[in-house]
Design the sequence.
């Protein structure tokens, strides 16, 4: 269990257009979803955290008006890159977190989607 | 501020040559240390979560251990299909993770 899907897996768009990426938890309800971006040969950089039905919390330096996040249900979150530019080209990965119990500790294992490769020309 | 440092950055092994990857962390109130495997062009795949010093978990050729300052991912008799980037992450409060830079493992046949 704990499968997360993303759509599309890759997208090419022209500069100035907007692109929407969907993230779905297929077999669990994700109380929290996360959006990351990853540049080649680098680790994951957290962009924002979203909880179902509330506004996303953005990391410092991430433009909330440029990267619009909607977490409409416990199984779906979307990231819209508005007015995309070549510097927004990157690998975008989402994850879903579900609370569980590991002994007496509440666990929050994150399960990641396969990623979306965005290229802005 | 939470810090996670992984070493080495890259590691090349021959098939069958066992080794260990290191993850050193500085975090107050650790609520979990996570290991992930990431193949090129794909999202990270969950491997293990460790919660307290002394804890160990195993999965096939991988074994993860945890102390108060670091975690090791031991790879026993690796195969070429174990080649990937291994990421370590820590959680303090809530569900937010802080990732290390990863170790790129290459296992040659």
Sequence:
């Amino acid at each position: 269990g704990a499968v997360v899907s993303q759509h599309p897996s890759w997208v090419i768009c022209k500069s100035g257009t907007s692109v929407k990426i969907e993230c779905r938890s297929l077999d669990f309800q994700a109380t929290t979803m996360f959006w990351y971006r990853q540049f080649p040969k680098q680790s994951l950089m957290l962009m924002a955290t979203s909880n179902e039905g509330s506004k996303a919390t953005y990391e410092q330096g991430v433009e909330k008006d440029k990267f619009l996040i909607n977490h409409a249900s416990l199984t779906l979150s979307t990231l819209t890159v508005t007015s995309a530019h070549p510097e927004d080209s990157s690998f975008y990965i989402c994850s879903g977190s579900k609370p569980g119990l590991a002994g007496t500790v509440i666990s929050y294992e994150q399960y990641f989607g396969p990623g979306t490769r965005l290229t802005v020309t | 501020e939470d810090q996670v440092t992984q070493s080495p950055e890259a590691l090349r092994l021959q098939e069958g040559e066992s080794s260990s990857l290191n993850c050193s962390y500085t975090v107050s109130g650790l609520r979990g240390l996570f290991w992930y495997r990431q193949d090129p062009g794909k999202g990270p795949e969950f491997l293990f979560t460790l919660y307290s010093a002394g804890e160990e978990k195993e999965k096939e050729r991988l074994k993860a251990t945890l102390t108060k300052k670091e975690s090791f991912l031991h790879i026993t008799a690796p195969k070429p299909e174990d080649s990937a980037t291994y990421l370590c992450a820590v959680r303090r409060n809530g569900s937010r993770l802080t990732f290390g830079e990863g170790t790129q493992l290459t296992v040659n046949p």
Notes: The two ends of chain A are 37 Å apart (CA to CA).
